[in-house]
Amino acid sequence: MLTSGILNPQINSLLSRVRHTNTLVIADRGFPYWPQIETIDISLVDDIPTVLEVLRAVRAGCVFGRVAMAQEFFDHNDQPTRSAFDAALEGLPLTRQPHEAFKRRVPNAIGLIRTGDTTQYANMVLESA
Known about the structure:
The protein is of the alpha/beta class.
């Protein structure tokens, strides 16, 4: 029985399949569904869990080399929110792109973890190192 780290068996299975240069999406509650990729929905209620909580848990056991986010995240959120994401993504080169271009990356991902986050455009594509 697992007693530490990520306890969710579906997320553990998904993470174990992420290899060099594969991508993983962590998304907010309003992010579209793509039937062609595995989606693990862990949303419970508004903001439980958040994208940042999932990101911190995933980064504790995985190595990522870069991240992509929609430019709209930076345009629509206040400085404290942007700073919290900057801190959680420390050390990862960040690509900002229009939301429509960002969404074109999603079908190539190994999977998507959907959260209950209500932060606008709080979605990211993490690329494994």
